[in-house]
Description:
CATH superfamily of the domain at 161-253: Periplasmic binding protein-like II
CATH class of the domain at 161-253: Alpha Beta
Oligomer: single chain
Order of helices and strands: HHHEEHEHEHEEEHEHEHEEH
Shape: globular
Amino acid sequence: xxxxxxxxxxxxxxxRSFNRTAERMRVTQSTVSARVVALEEAVGARLFIRSRAGTxxxxxxxxxxxxxxxxxxxxxxxxxxxxxxxxxxxxxRLGIQNDxxxxxxxxxxxxxxxxxxxxxxxxxxxYSTQMCADLVSGLLDFAVMFTPKPHPDVFFTSVGELTYRLxxxxxDHLSGLDVERYVMANFSPAFEAAHRQLLPDxxxxxxxxxxxxxVGALLLALGGSGYVIEAQASALETSGTFYRVKxxxxxxxxxxxxxxxxxxxxxxxxxxxxxxxxxxxxEDFSSSP
Length: 289
């Protein structure tokens, strides 16, 4: 069986859209449709039901799903076993939180390649929920994320934290902030909860976004105030167009590495984990309060 058929089936479960799966897998919609037809012919049953509400698993599809996930996991393990014994390069699929990718993807990738020179990497920035699902399905081997989604098949471990600082185009004190010009950062449930507890009056801002780079872009275009990653806050302050809000609390965002439970003791994942932890130790988000 072609593993692309299984990958397409598992992605379609998450996206519920042939168009979205085509975009995510970087193929045409007709290719997605052809793969689904081929898989249905192979198993002898209709796996999906399409309607105006989206694409849903049929009864037979629901029965097939756990077997598809096992096939994907076994395929990943088989390729790793062959690559470790042979000369072919192993491709490791990594996920990284969007907010981390903006500032740290280049250095992390360089460190990964130095640690594993015979390994090929596919790296995709994404959000925590999708990365957790992709680890379960076998579409990812390793991920760095903000928000663990507990699952019996996924192992999570803390690797560090990010520090976010409040900057403003017009004031360096909380008393001068205007909620109407405030960009509410909604990077993760943990960040939102901390922000709501520390600065409840600002949590009702009319504008909210989910990435530090997007907050920075909006502030540069519109002015106003918002939380950004510490390094980004320093750059904005150095530019002379923004103030660091001195009496605003720092907000820290924990970061986790995740992998399938079956692979948590593998030598490869151990090397990846050491690289990620070392990167976080050396960065400014590990600084003291």
